[in-house]
Automatic annotation (TrEMBL):
One of its GO terms (molecular function) is ammonium channel activity. This is Solute carrier family 12 member 12. It is a multi-pass membrane protein. The lineage of its organism: Eukaryota, Metazoa, Chordata, Craniata, Vertebrata. Pfam families: AA_permease (PF00324).
Amino acid sequence: TFIPVESKKLKGFFGYKAEIFTENFGPDFRGEETFFSVFAIFFPAATGILAGANISGDLADPQSAIPKGTLLAILITTLVYTGVAVSVGSCVVRDATGNVNHTIFTEWTNCTTAACKLNYDFSSCQKTECPYGLMNNFQVMSMVSGFAPLISAGIFSATLSSALASLVSAPKIFQALCKDNIYPGFLMFAKGYGKNNEPLRGYMLTFLIALGFILIAELNVIAPIISNFFLASYALINFSVFHASLAKSPGWRPAFKYYN
């Protein structure tokens, strides 16, 4: 973000500018998008904090590791996401045409947008959809980076790690539910294999469900569906803690005293 190329200014990338940050600071929902529709797209990015709790059986000291790891994960992800938003929001305007003919060579006195103040006229984007800018270009992170393949590698790494964490942890939780026979008819998934009691049948079921969502091939459609599942999971976790605390059962002895 510190080395903007001259040709990328046509695509809305100008480097760190106070006027760009000020213009991008407020919301700009377009079409049918609202706060909650955008929240549904973003929310799955913040759901990895349960990865440690989901594999608590594999941890040496889960009572100590899970609270520390979860709180540290929340802190790090908050800092990273905030840093990325501030960084890109300070460098790239919302709309850009990529057309060299929209360069302003004479000084305008009635400029109201950040792009105009930086000698570019992208006002045509108000009438027609432009291919570049924060609102239009999904590859904006690659555009502002000094080495674009590094961004692609990071996306693949984060996607694979999150997917593997879910594919490994979900079958184990489902296996535990089946062992308790909470849901009649699913007892076949309680069977484990090997010395670690691996839920191979659960792995196959999870694979098939994941494959069905992958075949949709549209992230903006999948994300709200996943958000509903995660929100339901978090609601049930919070209700479980509330109920156990209220009932004061003998088995309710939380090691982390700051639970809510």
